Amino acid sequence: MPELINPGPSRKGWHRLQNVLKCPRYYALSSFSKGQPSTAVPSDPLIKGSLLHMGLAHYYALMRKDQEHWKGRDEGKEYYPPHEAVEMLVADQPPEHQAAWQEWVPLVHRVLDAYVMHWAHDQSMVYYIEKEVQANIFDEERNESYFYTQRVDAVFRHPKTGKWWFVDHKTTFRIMEKTMRKYTLSGQFLGYQMLGQELFGDDWGGVLLNMIGWPQKGKAPEFERKVLPSAPFALSRFKNTLVHAERVIREHKDLDAMEWPGAHHETACWTTYGPCKYFEQCRLGAA
After folding, report:
1. What is the pLDDT of residues 81-136, one digit of tens each?
2. How far is CA 99 from its chain centroid?
3. CA nearest neighbour of 25 among 287, 255, 275, 270
4. Using CA of residue 160, residue 69, residue 194, residue 8, what is the dihedral sign?
């Protein structure tokens, strides 16, 4: 039976620490399942991005099977075709959400087909898809190690230079320079840089943003790949950020989730897509 690539988040990744830094109480409510998260359908951008990621994962899994360097390495493994994998992700949603997901399937199919045509002559050697990479972050002051992981959309190796690249698929309404620059100081991408350098040393190439612009007003989708700009100072201090976030968790772990400190900031309590899912609990207290 073919395999469906749907691994979910990494075990101890940046997302959880980002939540702690954004709002400790949000992290606690999410992690301890003591909150009452919204059962609303995910936002349209999240649905579209999830569907396209699923299709791309299967596209690259099938491409890898045909590449010479991978011959025989996953003998006997089969993968669903990209379009079928997209449909299966819809079917995997709660029944009451499936119509909202299905609405975007034709668009995702169209963009997938355009993507395949656009990058038809790409010679990148595909090694891993949805690969979890990991490290132990040592806190010298407390003599403690923190397990840290991140999941990479794809790992490519350049056929001529031999450099290794972490590839991250990003969808957007429009590909602009500022769209890509905003990821420069993102912990997700600093983590990629930290882990990539540790894994590959001098053979590390960097992080490649695989940008996909959704078609607008009848126009064709846009595709562009950009090397993430370097952030040497931020990268040199990133370990300190990870340690700080882990300490916040340990210092509050014995408290009830509602007793963790809240951020109480507009950008934390009210996001681009609406109120935080715990907005009412923080306003009125746990029901």
Report:
1. 999 999 999 999 999 999 999 999 999 999 999 999 999 999 999 999 999 999 99
2. 24
3. 255
4. positive
Round to whole Å and give the CA distance between 203 and 75: 28
**Per-residue pLDDT reduced to its tens digit, 54-82:** 999 999 999 999 999 998 888 778 999 99
Q: What is the pTM of this model?
A: 0.91
Contact indicator for 26, 279 with CB cutoff of 8 Å? no
Under 8 Å between Cβ of 214 and 110: no
Q: Which two tokens stand for residue 4?
A: 């469906």
Phi first, then psi: give them for residue 276, nearest 5 degrees. Answer: -55, 145
Q: What is the spatial distance between Cα 42 and Cα 120, in angstroms, rounded to a whole number?
A: 32
Sign (positive or negative) of CA dihedral 249, 253, 256, 260: negative
Distance CA 2, CA 60 (A): 15
